[in-house]
Every structure is written in C-alpha cells, then in structure tokens.
Amino acid sequence: MRSIVRRLLDLRLAAGKSAFLWGPRRVGKTYWIREYFAPAHEAKVIDLLQTDVFAEYAARPALLRERWSGGVTVIDEVQKVPALLDEVHWLIENRRASFLLSGSSARKLRRGHANLLAGRAWRLELAPLSVLETGGFDLERAMISGLLPPHFLSADPERDLRAYVADYLREEIAAEAALRNIPAFAEFLRVAALTNAELINCANVARETGVSAKVVRGYFEILEDTLLGFRLPPWTRARRRRTILTDKFYFFDVGVANYLARRRPLAGSTEFGKSFEHYILLELCNYRRYRDPELELRFWRTSTGQEVDFILGDMRAAVEVKAGARVHDGDLRALRALGEEHRVRRKLVVCREREPRRVGDIEILPWRTFLDRLFAGDIV
Predict the structure, then answer these.
(1) Distance (Å) of CA 212 to CA 195, 196, 205, 206, 323
(2) Which domains, and CATH codes, for the chain?
C-alpha cells in the first residue's frame, strides 16, 4: 500500500533565526509546516491562502508587527503580500524575531523588488517525494504518477495530473508571469517536456512552439523561477577531449514531465530509460537539498557524443544510469573514457540489476541500493 513516511526535511530554528521555505505547489509545504514544524516550535501560522487573512494583511501589513508576541511565526505563501517582508525585516532586526516564510515562487517578490532579507534568512526547499519518504513504492508506477504527494497517493494520478497542468501550470503560472499568449506557453510546456533531459536548444523549441527564441528563453526562466524546472550544467574542465558547454533542462517531477509530453513510459522502452535517468537525478537533487547543499551536480559529454549522466562534486563520483535489467560491457565505455581523462574517485552504474557487482574499478549497483547508500553518506 502506498504511503508517505516522515519527510527528509528537518528544520529547527534557534531564537533569532529565520528561513525561507520554497517549493512548487502540492509538494506538501503546508502539510509539513502544520504536522512537523509548527508543533515542534509552538509556532503561530499565518496562512495567506485564506481570503480573510490575506485581505487583513494586504490592507495593513503593520498588523504583523502589532500582533507579534514572540516565538516563531510562520507566514505561508508569503509572496502573496510582499510588503510583509519589510515588517519581517524590522522584527528580525529589532526584536530578534524568528520566521519561517514559505512560498511557491520568489519571482513575484524579485520582480516587485521586495525585501528578500539580504541573507538574514536561510533558503530551504521542499521537493517531490524521495523513495526514502515513501512506503509501497513501485518504480514503474512512479514514472507515470510522479512524486508529488497527492499524485503518488492517488488512485487516478493521470486525472490529478491533468488538473494540475490545466489549473496551475497553464493558468496560474501564466498569470503570475503576466503572459498574454497562454496557448503558446501551453505548447512550450509540451515541447519542453518532449526535450526534457536534453541539451537546451531555444531555436528548435521556438520553431516548434511558434514564438521567438527570446520568448522561449523567457519561458524557461519562468519555469526556473517558479521551481518547476532546473538546469544541469556540463563539466567543462576538459583536458584532452573537447566537451559540450550547453546546459540540459529537467522538469521538477517525472510524472509532470511525462504527462506534458503525452507519454506513458513502459519498462523496456526508450521513454522509460529517459524517465529513469530523470528520476535518479531528482533523487540526487534531494540528497543535495536535504543532506549536502554544497554538492555540485553536472554531466560530462564530449563533442563526439561520449557521455556520463552525472558528475558529483569535483569528480567525487561519476554516475551512469541504465534502465535495463542487465548492464553490458558496452554500457561502461563512457565511464572508462572519463577515467582516462580525469581522476574519478568512484565510477558507478545505477541500474535495475538485482545484486551489486564490480567490473574492474566500476561499481554496478541496483538503483535502490545506490539510493540507500547515497543518503547514508556512503557514496560521496
């Protein structure tokens, strides 16, 4: 039976400390705040999604200062009333107040030149689920449902994804970014999903979408600002082989990407292989997010097409992802080529084999074994 266990995010705010908590809609920020953070801190919660609460503070932001009585205060969806951040700033400076400020996008705050507290608050993120946060995890099903909590638990995830895409991605995100051509943005989402995990090519996406490359670059920026996607940069410190210098783009959730691309990845298909690579990257991002914020993630690709999916840190580990149930010698060529050029501490293949094994200096690990070791601190 599918279930969610305690989330990996664990935050304890000391007196006088504050934090921003960002994350796309439906990753579970409000639930985490009410179930875990607020009880532990005996925090007061101001939920700006409630229309009456929003109306009060939008009309008079000074109410925050006038009502403050100590302890930790949570402001949920803080981007809805940017002026509150000036009051938060004053309370931090003059009363050593502690705040947790949550939201789904800092875009509106930055565009409105809102007070982002200039380093006075830590920056944290909550993301779609990790396998370590779940029970009853089914890999093939997760490629379809994705790992947003409501979709992961749903009996009909495709219907929920349809609503999420229609109501949030196409309408709310477009409205927040003040887009006039919503049909073009909707088509961009589809094309961007089809090219998920590939090198960014704004000219090609623009041609498919029917807008200019400049507009497409703006669309990608919107997805990054609203935490709905991110870039993976290339490893550029080449010694002998000429390497690719273009970023790749990934959506924040494998289920959302597959729904937008109108594909249903089945085990053994090319689409499943791409989705599996995407999923492993999202788990690496979760590890960085919750365990090792300074960890760099990159990919290595030469101009001749040799590629290693992920480079962790300063060659602390190189990870190749293979969705097959059996890894063959030809699957190891890119890792060996990388090893000829750089000193790589660990070379790993993450796959769907049942047992770990080693071929020379290359470790072949079942995907679940790899993730358990990663979060236990045994990989990097």
Answers:
(1) 17, 20, 9, 5, 36
(2) 3-125 (3.40.50.300), 131-375 (no CATH)
